[in-house]
Specification:
Chain lengths: 199, 764
């Protein structure tokens, strides 16, 4: 397949125009499942994860136009993570904060001080974020390749089985399997570049 | 046979890029089979980093399909999302009178009229010239980018270089507080896109006229060496009343021989109307605008853009590789010459298109003449391709200049007058913020004296409820004796009140204790009684008695608003010096401002204390919450009643003051009414059905219409394209202006007006 077309529209750039419905529709399509998956992994139930996903996306919409998201100061991935963390924290701490009257200022502020993310929290996000993008890309790419090619990719890259074994199972040469795996992955990455600017 | 040494990385790269499994270099493949190093290299090249490989491992556990998630996605796609946006308008100087968003330079900014790729567009008044203008401001977040500023300034120069009836006039470029802004002509009227959305495809005469005017404007731009690059229906404004096209938003325009200002390979803009060479990132010239013009004409004739797709990538691919459906297959009323014209404009190879906008303008003038007098004026011939004169100079429409100028002043006058009326109305309607801004339709009065009659859903909360909160005949009493370890989380009562939009909440209270004297120099909160709104961004309005360091006491009211973005409180206290022991506290939300006021005694006048911007969604709960400032403080207050007014409140289980049997009777009565309404409606519908002879909805379509019906309405059926899916539909003339259901996609679409002498029929 030809490498990514030289012209690509930066989805994240287009998001700044809140009226750009196609861009926003695509954004929801890619990122809603991604966020949902992460929130579920954090232990939220179905309905809660869905609600929080919606809240996060609304936050993105509300803040995409502000100074905060500055590509020079960080990645979209990182910025999205702060939104998710805030939503999660609000969700968890909400009852407690709500019940702090303004007559108890000091403790209140302490409680709300933002803690740095736990190291594994951040790692998990990184992983889930990429997984989510790959999952979306996979949905687009799968119908475009032959089933054998897809299986070659899936069984090696996802299921982690050795190339030779997969080759036997599919009746392909090992080289074909490696090539298939590489090509599918390359396509996935190319597609992902369409919807996010960095890395 | 010697073992081949590992091939170059670039060889693997090339191999990765190919799709086929045929024709791969045998030696590479054989090597791959055996060499684990190269297998690894290939893998690394594809994934580009191990993080992606790791992530791929997790692809198996998907949570994509759950129902709740699907619902959210659907909701977001169909709902008003993203919302038009509470944008950050803090770069405007505050206005000195209501009705304005703010001031920018010398201009009085009235409202936001749109968003461009790089900024916001306002309507504003130039007070010196007393003229309404449009102002485009670079998004503040972009203003720090030198590239963006340059691009913005270029847009200004580009647009200003073109002076033409059919191009939005630029008055000037200024800067305010480091933000550049563009002042241009205000065009009152909707865009072509809005009109297409509203009434569907247009009449051929209209299409020709719009095409001609756009082409004329383009010719003027091209003559200045400018390529617009983003011609689409949304950028063609149709000036009210005069129905004159104005090309706007030269945001992406650049000089033909300019250096690229966008990052390599990244193009912003709408793909649906883009020229193929533009979509491919190749160098373009003025003929790209002609392709876009063709796409616009296509959309105007059929109601849909020529290329559509599920994603941006898909659209780009179609633009580049596919031919659109023929115009006449979507709208048979389009004349053949129009279809040919559009096809010519939309030739993939620029060489095959017209070579200048001037050519197109002249041609369209000829078509217009023909359409107006089909009998006498023949259809102009399309010139043969390949004879390409150099780009023609702009030709203003003959005789239009003088006429249009006076009309322009008339339009401007009308706009100013309308604005003046609006301002006058605003003044008449605006009141003291302590009075409700609007007529509230609904109100609850929740008396807290004694146990409220209808306290379904009321909930006590807090760790000390049993000891500290109780209903008394005189009101809800909250008491924290001194010595409770603290600060403690608050304790109180939750009242479920969901209100939409503007609201007003008033709390009556009494303070039952004396303030404690404090050490000099301290300012200490002794206690507070809060009204908490449960909306994203918890808002807390508080009354408290503060002891200030000078030993006096002040009765303070203050409000804190939770700032989501900064994740902290923004609080402001306002002194309301009084020693009165009872009073009222009020919060009013009007639009996007929350104000709070306080008064002495149950009947005292309200004094406005402060205002906050408040962008929360609707209200869900109100909580009354008491807390103390520390173990030395105590609380003893009584909340007597709570009044909530709003434009719309859902039913509490029983509205305050309603007796059970009365409510039941009302419900029964309502049921009867509803049933009656339904039967009436059904009867009417049945009557209509019998009269029409066929269902008004999905009957339209390409399945054979009963010939009887056809004869009956032969000259009064309207053909039009479904504005959602493009399917050709026919509907009876009586349905013009009404909505019908498209049998293909199920969307409700408007049936456009039928006109006598529709081109296409005129010739038959």
């Amino acid at each position: 397949m030809p490498q990514a077309p030289p012209t690509r529209l930066s989805l994240l750039l287009r998001l700044r125009d809140l009226q750009d419905r196609p861009a926003w529709a695509q954004f929801v399509e890619v990122y809603a499942p991604l966020l949902y998956g992460y929130l579920r992994k954090r232990g939220l139930q179905d309905a809660d994860a869905a609600d929080l996903t919606q809240a996060c996306l609304r936050q993105v919409a509300a803040r995409v136009g502000t100074f905060e998201y500055d590509p020079r100061r960080g990645t979209f991935r990182g910025w999205l993570f702060t939104i998710v963390r805030n939503q999660l924290r609000d969700f968890r701490d909400r009852p407690r904060r709500l019940y702090q009257g303004s007559g108890a200022p000091g403790l209140q502020r302490l409680l709300e001080a933002q803690a740095a993310p736990e190291p594994d929290e951040a790692d998990e996000w990184e992983r889930e974020y990429r997984r989510g993008l790959l999952a979306w890309a996979a949905e687009q790419v799968r119908p475009q390749v032959q089933e054998a090619t897809w299986q070659a990719f899936w069984q090696t890259a996802v299921e982690g089985r050795p190339g030779k074994e997969v080759a036997c199972g599919l009746g392909l040469t090992a080289a074909a399997v490696y090539l298939a795996r590489g090509r599918v992955m390359a396509r996935l990455r190319a597609l992902i570049r369409e919807v996010q600017e960095d890395e | 046979m010697t073992r081949m040494s590992c091939p170059d990385v670039s060889d693997w790269q090339a191999l990765l890029g190919e799709t086929g499994t045929e024709g791969e270099p045998d030696d590479l493949v054989r090597h791959l089979e055996a060499c684990a190093d190269c297998q690894g290299t290939l893998q690394a090249l594809a994934a580009e980093s191990t993080v992606w490989e790791d992530a791929a491992r997790g692809l198996g556990d998907g949570a994509r399909g759950e129902a709740a998630l699907r619902r959210v996605v659907e909701r977001l796609k169909t709902e008003d999302f993203p919302p038009p946006g509470d944008e950050d308008l803090s770069f405007l100087r505050p206005a000195d009178r209501p009705g304005l968003l703010g001031l920018l330079g010398r201009y009085e900014v009235q409202e936001v009229i749109g968003h461009g790729g790089m900024g916001v567009v306002f309507r504003a008044l130039d007070p010196d010239l007393n003229r309404v203008v449009a102002i485009k401001v670079v998004s503040p977040w972009l203003a720090s980018s030198a590239t963006a500023r340059r691009r913005f300034v270029r847009e200004a120069q580009a647009a200003a270089a073109v002076c033409h009836d059919h191009v939005v006039t630029v008055h000037g470029v200024n800067e305010a507080d480091g933000l550049p802004y563009l002042v241009m002509q205000y065009v009152a009227g909707e865009s072509l896109q809005a009109r297409l959305d509203r009434i569907g495809p247009l009449e051929v005469t209209e299409v020709v006229r719009i095409g001609m005017q756009t082409a004329a404007g383009l010719a003027a731009a091209h003559a200045q060496g400018l390529i617009h690059r983003d011609i689409k229906p949304a950028n063609l404004l149709l000036e009210n009343g005069l129905a004159r096209v104005k090309i706007s938003d030269f945001g992406l325009a650049r000089m033909a021989d300019d250096v690229q200002l966008t990052r390599d390979g990244v193009v912003a803009g709408t793909p649906e109307y883009m020229a193929p060479e533009q979509a491919r990132g190749e160098p373009i010239d003025h003929r790209a605008d002609l392709f876009s013009l063709g796409s616009v004409l296509y959309a105007t004739c059929t109601g849909v853009p020529p290329f559509r797709g599920a994603s941006v990538v898909a659209v780009l691919r179609r633009v580049s590789d596919e031919e659109p459906k023929p115009v006449r297959s979507l709208n048979p009323d389009v004349p053949a010459w129009m279809e040919s014209l559009i096809a010519r404009l939309m030739a993939k190879d620029p060489v095959e298109r017209f070579q200048s906008a001037g050519e197109v303008t002249a041609l369209l003038e000829g078509y217009l003449a023909h359409v107006r007098q089909p009998a006498t004026v023949p259809v102009p011939e399309l010139p043969a391709t390949g004879n390409s004169p150099r780009p023609a100079e702009a030709r203003p429409l003959p005789g239009s200049v003088g006429r249009s100028r006076s009309r322009l002043w008339l339009a401007a006058l009308v706009v100013v007058a309308a604005f003046g009326l609006a301002v006058a109305q605003w003044f008449a309607g605006a009141g003291d913020v302590t009075e409700p801004i609007k007529e509230y339709k609904d109100q609850y009065l929740i008396s807290l004296r004694g146990t409220p009659e209808n306290s379904e859903g009321f909930e006590f909360f807090g760790p000390d409820v049993a000891e500290c909160v109780r209903y008394e005949p005189a009101g809800l009493r909250l008491t924290f004796p001194r010595g409770f370890p603290g600060p403690r989380p608050g304790t109180g009562l939750t009242i479920p009140v969901a209100a939409k939009g503007d609201f007003e909440i008033t709390l009556g209270f009494e303070i039952l204790q004396e303030p404690e004297p404090a050490d000099a120099g301290t300012q200490q909160t002794l206690f507070s009684l809060d009204v908490v709104l449960d909306a994203p961004g918890d808002t807390v309005a508080t009354i408290g008695r503060k002891v200030d360091g000078r030993g006096g006491t002040q009765f303070l009211a203050w409000m804190t608003v939770w700032d989501e973005a900064a994740h902290k409180d923004r609080g402001r206290g306002k002194g309301f010096p009084t020693t009165a022991k009872s009073g009222r506290l009020r919060m009013v939300r009007a639009g996007s401002t929350l104000s709070y006021c306080a008064s002495d005694g149950p009947d005292g006048e309200f004094v406005l204390l402060d205002k906050f911007p408040f962008a929360a969604e609707d209200l869900k709960f109100v909580r009354l919450l008491g807390s103390t400032g520390g173990p030395q403080a105590s609380l003893d207050v009584r909340a007597t009643d709570l009044r909530i007014r709003a434009g719309s409140l859902p039913e509490l289980p029983e509205k305050s003051g309603g007796k059970g049997w009365l409510a039941a009777g009302t419900i029964l009565g309502l049921l009867i009414l509803v049933l009656a309404a339904i039967s009436l409606g059904a009867w009417l519908y049945g009557r209509q059905r019998r009269r029409m002879g066929q269902a008004p909805a999905a009957g339209a379509g390409e399945q054979a219409q009963p010939t009887a019906a056809e004869h009956e309405t032969a000259s009064a059926a309207i053909s039009f394209a479904c504005s959602a899916c493009g399917k050709m539909l026919k509907a009876k003339a009586e349905l013009s202006g009404k909505k019908v259901k498209c049998p293909q996609c199920g969307q409700a679409v408007f049936v456009p007006a039928a006109k006598a002498g529709k081109a296409g029929r005129a010739s038959s």
